[in-house]
Design a protein that fits this description.
Layout lengths: L3 H10 L10 E3 L6 H4 L6 E5 L2 E5 L4 E5 L5 E4 L9 E4 L4 E5 L2 E5 L3 H4 L13 H9 L6 H5 L10 H11 L12 H23 L23 E5 L4 E5 L9
Antiparallel strand pairs: 1-6, 2-3, 3-4, 4-8, 5-7, 6-7, 9-10
Helix pairs in contact: 1-7, 4-7, 6-7
Keywords: DNA damage, DNA repair, DNA-binding, Endonuclease, Glycosidase, Hydrolase, Lyase, Multifunctional enzyme, Nuclease
GO molecular function, one term: zinc ion binding
Organism: Pedobacter westerhofensis
């Protein structure tokens, strides 16, 4: 599943189509394709793992889920969920959830929870963390209402940087460590963005999908953790368990 930084990359890649007029829309998404045809794209935005194509009076929301993808210029050999055609270009979206939204995004989304946003509010994240004292920190980091854009890669790498075990209870983690986790959620997201653009993301993983930590060579444990049962990768000797 694409995490927040990957959606930011899509937003940057597709920005050349801003203010272009869609000559035709096609695909099997359950939206009115005629409504998109002959409409000018006003903007492209993102919130966490959500990508938005903004028109003057409505917005198309795209969520890529586990297997979604996109492609410019030429289609794949499978049918797109949505294809936008322009006079001399095309963009295709595959295996994703597509919905029409009415109203303004600021009314529907809290951009201060997006770790990639200029509006990110770390104090608000800390307050919400304190409201979940009995939750495992691995679950809390994946809560999109607190850390929108954080996915499983970022979760694992952030907890390694903060030296906190993924099964630690949020209410037992010292305040200084909580603040470190919040800071690293944003800092690592921008490192992710930088490395992804340079095609160096995997080589910089400290624990994710590894058997030994990249920096110290310590054994990495893989375990499904929390209510979400998502895979956690951690160094038991370097990440403290707070329970």
């Amino acid at each position: 599943m694409p995490e927040g930084p990957s959606i930011v990359i899509l937003k940057e890649k597709i920005s050349y189509l801003k203010n272009k007029i869609v000559s035709e829309a096609s695909g099997y998404a359950e939206i009115d394709m005629e409504e998109l045809s002959h409409k000018k794209i006003i903007d492209f935005k993102s919130w966490g793992k959500h990508f938005f194509i903004c028109f003057s009076d409505f917005t198309i929301r795209i969520h890529f889920g586990l297997f979604g993808s996109y492609q410019f210029h030429e289609p794949k050999k499978v049918n797109p969920k949505l294809a936008l055609h322009f006079n001399n270009d095309d963009v295709y979206f595959y295996v994703c959830t597509i919905e029409r939204l009415d109203g303004t995004l600021d009314e529907m989304y809290d951009f201060s929870t997006d770790v990639m946003s200029d509006e990110w509010d770390d104090a608000q994240a800390l307050k919400k963390l304190k409201d979940l004292p009995d939750s495992q920190i691995a679950d809390v980091l994946l809560d999109q209402k607190i850390f929108s854009g954080v996915g499983n890669i970022i979760k694992n790498e952030v907890l390694y940087r903060a030296e906190v075990h993924p099964e630690s209870l949020a209410g037992k983690i010292p305040l200084a460590r909580l603040k470190t986790i919040i800071k690293e959620a944003r800092d690592y997201s921008f490192d992710f963005l930088k490395w992804k653009k340079a095609d160096q993301l995997k080589k910089n993983f400290e624990v994710y999908t590894r058997k030994e930590t990249r920096s110290t060579g310590k054994p990495v444990t893989k375990k499904d953790t929390g209510k979400s049962k998502r895979s956690s990768y951690f160094s038991a000797s370097e990440q403290k368990l707070y329970k």
